[in-house]
Design brief:
Strand 2, helix 2 and strand 3 form a beta-alpha-beta unit. The longest helix has 20 residues. This protein has a five-stranded parallel beta sheet with strand order 1-5-4-2-3, with helices on both faces. The chain contains eleven helices and ten strands. By secondary structure, the chain is α/β, with parallel strands linked by helices. It is globular, with a radius of gyration of 19 Å. The mean pLDDT is 94. Bound molecules: phosphoric acid mono(formamide)ester. Phosphoric acid mono(formamide)ester (CP) binds next to helix 2.
Length: 313
């Protein structure tokens, strides 16, 4: 395994298979750390991680914070609402200011596609994209792949159906690329109004009905309707969406009998996923959250460690 530092994680598009495997393999070791009674190692003592979230988040922001703290890094959560952004400071000046404080890793979520790339080109520290507009959410895809691997051993040859609001989903874009990179067969499915024109370019079969997409699937990944990004009416009512496209018990029977049920969260229960499916014995939604901490520990470690530094020291 290469000893080089990871200097940026902006998307899956520019991630190699070797680096993806390196992150997933490293996360295996950190999953064990997160399950210990004392969930802390001194690995990144003296390193600084800043979480800069311009959009709301529960899972991603908290898990990056926990990941940094469990590695003993100094973690700062910038509150954009009370920062000088509100006085008109530009993104460029904000990140230059954080960089001047010798920050090792900036983790950023922003509503603009390409924002992570923009700052990565302007700072000395590493940059991790925690979601940029409708573009990419690479750490979500990595934790999803990690969760599937934990259950199935490998991604190779599995059929994964990604269903819902494909058009507005950075999770769909990152997952379609990563899961294919790791050898899975990916199917994309959404109502016509939620299938972007360019999604054929993802290289996956595309379905405008959910039933054929989940037929025999090993994994069914439901997506949240991104109500905050819907420009116009993409469907008549939430009830209608649930009736035509929601994952319920009856539809789930079409998938493989041991199919995993996934959702990146936050879930709209009763809309894209029925309550009893969200809580089904094969639902791994909370395992995805647990994986998120281990995978983000792996990413921070690979970005901020000193050369040759072992995982636990
Ligand atoms: N899946 C995800 O990104 O969740 P948050 O928006 O809560 O971070």
């Amino acid at each position: 395994m290469s000893d080089e530092r990871l200097t940026r994680l902006l998307g899956i598009e520019d991630l190699s298979r070797t680096t993806a495997d390196r992150i997933l393999d490293t996360a295996e070791a950190f999953l064990e750390v997160t399950r210990r009674p004392v969930r802390k190692v001194p690995t990144l003592r003296g390193k600084t991680v800043i979480n800069l979230f311009y959009e709301n988040s529960t899972r991603t922001r908290t898990s990056f914070e926990l990941a940094g703290k469990r590695l003993s890094a100094d973690v700062v959560n910038m509150s954009v609402a009370t920062s000088s952004t509100k006085k008109g400071e530009t993104l460029r000046d904000t990140v230059a200011t954080l960089d001047a404080m010798h920050t090792d890793v900036i983790v950023m979520r922003h509503s603009a596609s390409g924002a992570a790339q923009y700052i990565a080109d302007r700072v000395k520290g590493a940059v991790v994209n925690a979601g940029d507009g409708m573009h990419e959410h690479p750490t979500q895809a990595l934790l999803d792949a990690f969760t599937i691997r934990q259950h199935k051993g490998t991604l190779a040859g599995l059929t994964v159906a990604i269903c819902g609001d494909i058009a507005h989903s950075r999770v769909a874009r990152s997952n379609a690329q990563l899961l294919r990179l790791l050898g899975a067969n990916v199917r994309l499915s959404g109502p016509q109004t939620m299938l972007p024109r360019h999604c054929k370019g993802f290289g996956c079969p595309v379905y405008d009905r959910i039933e054929p997409a989940i037929e025999g699937a090993d994994v069914v990944m439901m997506l949240r309707i991104q109500q905050e990004r819907l420009g116009g009416a993409s469907f008549s009512t939430l009830r209608e969406y649930s009736r035509v496209f929601g994952l319920n018990r009856q539809r789930l029977e079409r998938a493989h009998p041991e199919a995993l049920i996934m959702h990146p969260g936050p879930m709209n229960r009763g809309v894209e996923i029925a309550d009893d499916v969200a809580d089904h014995r094969r639902s791994v939604v909370l395992e995805q959250v647990e994986s998120g901490v281990a995978v983000r520990m792996a990413i921070l470690y690979l970005c901020a460690r000193d050369p040759g530094q072992p995982l636990g020291a």
